Amino acid sequence: MTSYKAINLNKHLVTGPITPDFFQAVQLEKPVVKEGELLVKQNHMSLDPAMFGWMNADTGSYIPPVELGTVMRSFGIGEVIESNHPDFNIGDRVTGMMGWQELYLSNGEGLDKVDAPLPDADVLSLFALPGLTATQGLFNVGQPKAGETLVVTGAAGSVGSIVGQLAKADGLNVIGIVGSDEKADWIVHELGFDGAINYKSDDIDAQLAKLAPKGIDLFFENTGGPIQHHIYNRMNEHGRIIVCGLIADYEAGEPQAAPSWSNIIKKRLRVEGFVMTDHFQNAPALLEKFAPYVMEGKIKHRSHVLEGLESAMTGLNLFTTGENKGKLIVRL
Q: Which of 12, 60, 172, 306 is in Cβ range 3.0-4.6 Å of 167 for a Cys bridge?
């Protein structure tokens, strides 16, 4: 391979849907690996809802936007094919923020070796961002207690499905909000959720009342949208709301009106937003907490794999249409 393909961000996102003209595919010369550097052939890369924010021009966010004309940001997994770095050998499998490109030149910073004998898709679906985010958000932010009731939106997604299973394994009553009857069936009958609600159905408030007759203690928010009002209004005193994502607002550009703050006062609620970029230094401890659940067979998952680097350009729209089933991954 004397050259490789990469995809640059061509324009910033204001509203969706995302079309190929947001990006530009370029052919680049294979880089020369200098002393202290290594070259990775990326095999799979992760597509995540956070990318909608990274494509925005907002400089006041938790991470700077992707600069126009540079490689689109993403997390991936690959194999070291050349190395002049003392800590990495040819053949090592590594993960890190490699971007939308076939080859990634690195000085080693931000790359982690993968020792688990799992397929790439399983690593990205479990032990990469989804597992870390779910563990940090549920346990360190939500502080769940056995017997409590948790509602998680985006419950069939990569993070939401893990959050629900972790909570269920720790003795909580778990209700998932999803976008189709198929996904509702999957999280109840395959993942073990106590109940599910298709947010496109009627009588959402009545369904919540039936599934959570004693109210809601924890609300793990991944999607935003009108459903959040129904959940918020049924929160118990001293409930916790963990705000991880707002996918329904990302494409719209203009966020929907949030619920009134009155319940925060009356019920002494705690609302906390979090992003994993603040907690990557704690990744070893988070994985130590998360791994036993996987090893004991308490966590199931499914991956939705797209083929080819350029499929990422329109693949992001699957998040807003709800057509993705499980962790969204691109196989290069």
A: 172
CA-to-CA separations, 75 to 46, 140, 213, 305, in angstroms, rounded: 5, 23, 40, 15
| pLDDT tens digits along 158-173 | 999 999 999 999 999 9
Q: What is the pLDDT of residues 157-215, one digit of tens each?
A: 999 999 999 999 999 999 999 999 999 999 999 999 999 999 999 899 999 999 999 99
d(CA 274, CA 222): 11
**224-251 core/surface letters (b: 16 or more CB in 10 A; e: else):** bbebbbbbbebbbeebbbbbbbbbbebb
Q: Within this chain, do residues 152 and 108 fall inside the same structural domain, yes or no?
A: no
Q: Please report, for the domain that includes residue 42, its CATH number.
A: 3.90.180.10
Ranges of H-type helices in the chain: 50-54, 120-122, 129-135, 158-169, 181-189, 204-211, 227-232, 247-252, 262-266, 283-295, 312-315, 317-321
Q: Does residue 13 lie in a domain region? A: yes
Q: What's the length of the chain?
A: 332
Q: Omega into 17 within 30° of 0, i.e. cis?
A: yes
Does a structural domain hold residue 320?
yes
Instruction: Report how far Cα 127 is from the mean position of its chain's Cα atoms.
Output: 12
